[in-house]
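In response to reviewer comment 3 from the previous cycle, which asked for concrete evidence that the modeling workflow produces usable outputs, we include below a single protein chain processed end to end. The sequence was submitted unchanged, and the resulting structure tokens are shown without manual editing.
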Amino acid sequence: MKFVSDELLAALMGDMREAAEIEILPRFRAITADTIRAKTAADDIVTDADIGAERLLCERLSERMSGVAIFGEEAVSDDASILKRLADADLAAVIDPVDGTWHFAHGTPMFGSILAMVSSGETIAGLIHYPILGDFLVARRGEGAWHVAADGTRTRLSVVAPTPIEEMHGFIPLHMFEPDLQEKLAPRVLRFLRTTTWRCSAWEYRMMATGAMSFTLVPGP
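The workflow returned the following structure tokens.
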């Protein structure tokens, strides 16, 4: 299994900053009808920022890591069959160029960019960039996770301590589950102190990683 070094993580953060500065931030709050399109549903959308950021990141990753297999959200949306190659790839990069596209397209700042490094089907490192704040969450397999501020300051992260169910608060997007499972889950949700969904995994992960929320529950593939 591959290992992601500190030097590679720093370089990947630089690539994500570049994608944000060139492709994402200039388009924020400048979305027009001809730069936004629906994908699988009316509220499942893609913008020129998603496409441009994914293209730039793919170029930078190919230049930086010879032989890396790259799986971008927009490419997979066009051809889901390419995911079959992920489990066998010696080293792969999985990209969500603009997670929270709905927020981005509607002018709210709750969005981020996600990059996971995968080896033989197992995630070995992950980075989430928050373009508006300029900071990152970074994790490496077996070594924990950190918040990396815009000035480079690193703070070790930890999830919230276990609590009784009735004291837990988390994210449950019921609409993403199959209808029969929604009916089973809905009454059980009431056992928790509070549940919500923010329509942006990057920010929901941030709340979990910093201990602000207890859990997130989403359907499997």
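The helical segments are 6-24, 48-64, 73-78, 101-105, 179-189, 201-209. We consider this sufficient to address the reviewer's concern, and the full set will be provided in the supplementary archive.
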